[in-house]
């Protein structure tokens, strides 16, 4: 979601210098009146400007899919300065010291509201850009920061040419603008056009470092430049421990391995889903059509009766194509995993039961086609 807002309660508070919650509470006290609170006469028209930037735990490159995970207080940096306000639940006090916060799958993805205030439209735009560049939440949870930054850099923002479908039409340009500036070294640069050729690069390569438990999607293909051998072979990889943490978010190249006698091209990309305890589950084999895996990280809230019966009795149970096998809850929204074809559930994935959180790529169950099972019998 774009989540850049002008007219909300917090922006009204900023431009009018009124704490709405405090005012409402004071009106319930016996000594407070509209007159004592200076609310009898209309207030002068505000001359200030304000923007609310809503930071969410979502990956805009994956359709704004939820990105759950853990945020360490040591990696948390909020923007600061005159005219910058941050409302967030990622807080710690001397009485309740917290070292980390967990972004789960049950509640809303909102992490913080960053409100910037200034005397002009250009000032709040520049202040908003600086605020997004200053914030840091570590590397385990992806956010919509690139979208917020790209929108503020886009020429349509300055010309006030934004409508309700603007984000959908321009998302690629917005992401490109935001990522190039977030990766840049040094002060913020103004980009006048989404097609500008100004080179903004990160000399270190990738900006995302690996964490223990990071989940990856790995694919192999021949290095001869042909596709005659079929589609790439896919695997899933997780890191249980890391000796040196200095890896980019995406890596491609050529490998000489013991898997094949000839070099092979590879593509390694970090998953957008949070890592879960991989030893409690098992991975689905993307190359096995009978394996039904999780498309995203979520909490199991419902299992098909066939899965429950197989788990309890160990006897294959029939299912029909399109039947709901598993219901995953993500941000109070239910996501359905359906049977890919008519067949029999042979077994349930390790650790899969109602109430657990499963990560992307984990095995939910194994379903065998009806004809294949009959031929074996």
List keywords for this structure.
377 residues; D-amino Acid Aminotransferase, Chain A, domain 1; OB fold (Dihydrolipoamide Acetyltransferase, E2P); 3 domains; four-stranded antiparallel sheet; 8 helices
Folded structure, characterized:
- The chain has about 375 residues and is an alpha+beta fold.
- The chain has helices at about 10-15, 20-25, 120-135, 145-155, 155-160, 165-185, 305-315, 370-375; strands spanning about 5, 50-55, 60, 65, 70, 75, 85-90, 100-105, 110-120, 135, 215-220, 235-240, 250-255, 265-270, 290-295, 300-305, 315-320, 325-330, 335-340, 345-350, 355-360, 365-370.
- The strands form seven sheets. It has a four-stranded antiparallel beta sheet.
- α3 (about 120-135) runs antiparallel to α4.
- Mean pLDDT is about 80; it is low at about 185-210.
Spatially, the strands of the biggest sheet line up as 1-2-9-7
Tell me the CATH architecture of the largest domain. Answer: 2-Layer Sandwich
At CATH level 3, the topology of the largest domain is D-amino Acid Aminotransferase, Chain A, domain 1
CATH superfamily of the largest domain: ATP-grasp fold, B domain
Counting structural domains, the number is 3
Proportion of β residues? 25-35%
CATH class of the largest domain: Alpha Beta
- Radius of gyration, in Å, reads 25 Å
Mean pLDDT across every amino acid position:
78
Topology as a string of helices (H) and strands (E): EHHEEEEEEEEHEHHHEEEEEEHEEEEEEH
Number of helices: 8
Number of strands: 22
Low-confidence stretches: 185-209
Q: Main β-sheet: number of strands, strand sense, barrel status?
A: 4 strands, antiparallel
């Amino acid at each position: 979601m774009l989540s850049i807002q002008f007219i909300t309660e917090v922006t009204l508070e900023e431009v009018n210098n009124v704490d709405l919650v405090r005012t409402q509470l004071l009106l319930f006290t016996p000594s407070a009146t509209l007159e004592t609170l200076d609310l009898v006469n209309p207030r002068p028209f505000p001359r200030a400007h304000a923007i609310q930037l809503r930071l969410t735990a979502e990956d805009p490159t994956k359709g704004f899919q939820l990105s759950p995970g853990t945020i360490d207080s040591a990696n948390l940096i909020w923007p600061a300065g005159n005219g910058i306000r941050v409302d967030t639940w990622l807080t710690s006090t001397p009485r309740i010291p917290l070292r980390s916060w967990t972004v789960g799958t049950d509640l809303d993805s909102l992490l913080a509201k960053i409100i910037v205030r200034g005397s002009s439209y250009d000032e709040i735009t520049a202040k908003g850009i600086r605020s997004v560049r200053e914030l840091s939440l570590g590397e385990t949870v992806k956010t919509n920061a690139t979208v917020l930054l790209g929108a503020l850099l886009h020429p349509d923002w300055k010309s006030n040419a934004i409508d309700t479908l603007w984000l959908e039409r321009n998302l690629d340009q917005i992401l490109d603008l935001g990522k190039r500036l977030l990766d840049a070294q040094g002060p913020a640069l103004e980009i006048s056009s989404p097609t500008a050729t100004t080179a903004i690069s990160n000399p270190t390569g990738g900006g995302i470092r690996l964490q223990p438990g990071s989940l990856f999607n790995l694919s192999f293909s021949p290095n001869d430049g042909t596709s005659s051998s079929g589609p790439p072979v896919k695997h899933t990889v997780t890191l249980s421990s890391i000796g040196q943490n200095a890896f980019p978010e995406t890596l491609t190249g050529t490998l000489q391995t013991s898997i094949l006698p000839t070099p092979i091209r590879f593509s390694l990309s970090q998953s957008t889903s949070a890592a879960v305890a991989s030893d409690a589950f098992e991975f689905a084999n993307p190359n096995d059509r009978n394996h039904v895996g999780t498309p995203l990280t979520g909490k199991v809230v419902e299992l098909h009766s066939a899965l429950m019966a197989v788990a309890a009795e160990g006897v294959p149970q029939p299912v029909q194509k399109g039947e709901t096998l598993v219901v995953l809850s993500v941000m109070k929204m239910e996501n359905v995993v359906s049977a890919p074809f008519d067949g029999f559930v042979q077994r349930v994935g390790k650790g899969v039961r109602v109430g657990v959180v499963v990560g992307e790529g984990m095995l939910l169950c194994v379903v065998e086609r009806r004809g294949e099972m009959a031929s074996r019998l």
